[in-house]
Amino acid sequence: MESGLITVTHADADGVLSLATLMMVMGDRMRVYFSHPNGLLSTLKRIESEKLYIFDIAGSKESIIEAARSGEVLWIDHHIWEPQIRPENVSFCIDSSAKSACSLVSRYFNITAFEKIADEIDTNTVTSSEADKVRKIIGHFKGMKDSNKHFLHFAKKLAERGLEALEDYREEIIAYEDELRSFEELVKRYSRVKQVNGIKIAVVRTPRRIPVYVAYNVLTRHDEAPFDIIIVTSRMSDRVELRTHTGYDVLRIARIFGGGGHRVASGARADVEDVLTAISFLK
């Protein structure tokens, strides 16, 4: 068993900000793994530590068993799920009413840090310049092969210097703004509208991965908006992301395919046509 602390956090803005918040409390002397819902189990199979923290990723019975091989485990998340088992050494802090995992990390460690920014980004209600910058910085790094290295460095800078660290990333922000324009054009070019069971659906299947929030925002300006269900995927992925303009419960669709998330923002490994077929059987 490895000594010290290992932190597993989601490879997105909320996960990075959760990590930065933790580092403000405990310093940055820890091993960090960035993961995602489909990869969490394989990540945990490689880990056995005296202390393990998991942020912003929903678990399963299997992943909880793997996590419990470590000594002291803290699991903080805001997705909708209920632990199927509760080992004595695993403490759960799960609140699906929270707008972000970062807000729960801040609450748990009694510190005010980046929770408002994380809330804005994770609910796609970005209004502050700071949240806009963080989302662009994370978006820029996400497209890189060594994205995890950049995420870690960014979290350390935020923990050390706070939001002043954002000024170090002007070039990355400008570069991402150029990428954004190309993403928006892809959404316009590769979106199609379908009606299934009286449900208005927009399907966006692009040649390369794009940020889901970009598709959501572009589609709000579509002539046929609002859409009950938005399905976003790429030719490079076997995963679909599900969103809604109208409050439709997309989580129940994701769960058909073993996915999860939130009521209005979910994802799963599935083919678009299979998702459309599943929707046709919903009542």
In brief, what are we looking at here?
41% of the residues lie in helices and 23% in strands.
Decide which structural class fits the backbone.
alpha/beta
Would you identify the regions where 5 or more consecutive residues have pLDDT less than 50?
none
* CATH architecture classification name of the largest domain: 3-Layer(aba) Sandwich
The largest sheet is: 6 strands, mixed
Number of helices: 11
CATH topology of the largest domain: Rossmann fold
Spatially, the strands of the biggest sheet line up as 6-7-8-9-11-10
Name the helicity range. 40-55%
Shape: globular
Number of strands: 11
* CATH class annotation of the largest domain: Alpha Beta
Distance between the termini: 50 Å
Report the sheet-strand fraction: 15-25%
> What radius of gyration results from the CA coordinates?
19 Å
Number of domains: 2
Mean pLDDT: 97
Order of helices and strands: EHEHEHEEHHHHHEEHEEHEEH
Keywords: Coiled coil
InterPro entries: DDH_dom (IPR001667), DHH_sf (IPR038763), Nucleotide_metab_enz (IPR052968)
Coiled coil: 159-193
Domain DDH: 8-123
